[in-house]
Amino acid sequence: MSIIKQIYKPSMTVGQVYAKIYGSEGLPMPIGNVLELGLEHDEDVKKQDDMTALGGGTHAEVRRIKDAKITMKLADLNVVNLSRAIFGEASEKAAGDVIDEEHAATLGGLVRLAHIQPTAVTVQKGATAGAATVVTAPGNYEVRPEGIFINADAAGVTDADKLWISYTYGAYAVIEAMTTKSVELALTFGGLNEADGGKPVVVDIYRASQGITKKLALINKDFGALDVEGSVLLDSTKTGVGISRYYRVSMA
Question: What are the strands of the beta sheet with 247-251, ordered from one edge?
């Protein structure tokens, strides 16, 4: 039977989502586990009343697509997905060593170091780095991923003491949030219909904006996810009679 004439076609799809910057020459790259992916359509409906007889009714109607929206729930909060979802600029910090980073002590407070995940830590105190002595008393401080926590009962340390901290750190990524604009993406969904023998359903969305995530959970009891949405925009490079300038669905 011709695929176009098939009636039985239940749908429950899974699959990969690929993205690239719209207009770029690179290949679309997988964006990870996408828990939800959908397209929503909004119509502008204009009606003309039937005034020719009693009882009313509609004499004429015009329906035009007002907007097409894409929604995604992203399970992988990798650097690329998170950067796009918070309008951020990402950069990579190479591993390195820090010698005598200066801070002022506060008992019971956190020394937020310039880099994360410090190792091989040495804490000294003194008016100058050259005259500083090592803070060696057990229990004076804790090394944490975010920095050095000065214990409230640290021996030989008082508030406002100058601390000189040396340490080593590994490579890590930094995302400066809300520093750029929304990206425009070309998206491909490589779907498999589990309700129809795993047959492929491939959707190409030629050009779509991605908005900022409505919520970024920092402490939560369940897996984190990014809920993002955007508009499906016209792609002027798609031309021809019967050719969509928005998106295309291919299915077996």
Answer: 29-30, 13-21, 183-193, 199-210, 247-251
Task: Give the span between the Cα atoms of 247 and 249, in whole angstroms.
Answer: 7
The reported pLDDT for the residue numbered 218 is: 96
pTM of the complete model beyond 0.70: yes
Q: Given CA atoms 16, 21, 27, 31 in this order, what sign does their dihedral have?
A: negative
| 3-state SS string for the chain | CCHHHCCCCCCCEEEEEEEEECCCCCCCEECCCEEEEEEEEEEEEEEEECCCCCCCCEEEEEEEEEEEEEEEEECCCCHHHHHHHCCCEEEEECCEEEEEEEEECCCCCEEECCCCCCEEEEEEECCCCCCCEECCCCCCEEEECCEEEECCCCCCCCCCCEEEEEEEECCEEEEECCCCCCEEEEEEEEEEEHHHCCEEEEEEEEEEEECCCCCCCCCCCCCCCEEEEEEECCCCCCCCCCCCCCEEEEEC
Ramachandran angles phi, psi of 97, nearest 5°: -125, 145
Give residue 135's pLDDT. Answer: 87
